[in-house]
Write a structure and sequence with these properties.
235 residues, alpha+beta, Immunoglobulin-like, eight-stranded mixed beta sheet, five-stranded mixed beta sheet, 16 strands, elongated, glycoprotein, membrane, Ig-like_fold
């Protein structure tokens, strides 16, 4: 295979192909400097692509259809079958506007903690802010905390108050468009805390008191029972 070279879409070295969401894109792999028929192989990541017999020798084409978000960052590699070191890779850079998801309605008890999670997928990366009732949220350092990765934008509120009731909007902005998602937060009254240990102790005391009462009155209870038995015999 000395002197043999491959090219993909006229690129002789690894490259990145930028594209948007589209019905299809084609990748064409070509053998250069060959003096005989050379078989080609295609891989998507580490998995081999199944090629038809007429699409393997000296030139091979694959079609990605449709191109969607899951193709972003995926690498396609064309290799020479008899010498897999001869190869060219193309990594897809699929650009798309923000797509948001997350639990829309949250109920939380007063003085509990809550986290609003806005799942955000976008390429390129986006800028994110939170609104409350259509106004930019004023963050309180002691109560609010933000957390952000490439796919998650979170707002955590410590010890929620009734004033935290409202609609929170996750807003993400990119050059390809903006995305918003509303989260409705309902702060409910704090539930009374029942002292479980005290209730159990009181139940034990009541039970013991009843038992002692029965024992203390056992003679009287026995006399009444005997009288009832005697009366039954007479009748």
């Amino acid at each position: 295979s000395a002197g043999l070279e491959l090219s993909v879409n006229n690129h002789a070295a690894d490259f990145t192909l930028s594209t948007g969401l589209s019905p299809a894109i084609s990748l064409s792999c070509l053998v250069h400097n060959s003096s005989q028929a050379e078989e080609l192989l295609w891989y998507r990541g580490t998995g081999q692509v199944d090629l038809k017999d007429g699409n393997k020798v000296n030139i091979s084409n694959i079609c990605i259809s449709p191109v969607n978000e899951s193709d972003n960052g995926v690498t396609f590699t064309c290799r020479l079958a008899r010498d897999k070191a001869v190869q060219v890779s193309v990594t897809l850079d699929v650009q798309f506007p923000p797509q948001l998801s997350g639990e829309e309605t949250l109920h939380v008890e007063e003085e509990k903690d809550v986290t609003l999670t806005c799942n955000s997928k976008a390429n390129p990366q986006v800028q994110s802010i939170w609104l409350k009732d259509n106004q930019i949220l004023t963050l309180q350092q002691s109560r609010h905390k933000l957390y952000q990765t490439s796919e998650v934008f979170q707002l955590s509120i410590t010890k929620v108050q009734k004033s935290d009731n409202g609609t929170y909007t996750c807003v993400v902005e990119s050059g390809l468009g903006n995305g918003t998602r509303d989260f409705h937060l309902f702060v409910e009254d704090k539930k009374p805390v029942f002292p479980t240990e005290a209730i159990i102790a009181a139940a034990v005391v009541v039970t013991i008191t009843i038992l002692f009462g029965i024992v203390a009155q056992k003679d009287k209870i026995f006399k009444v029972w005997k009288a009832l038995v005697s009366l039954e015999k007479i009748v």
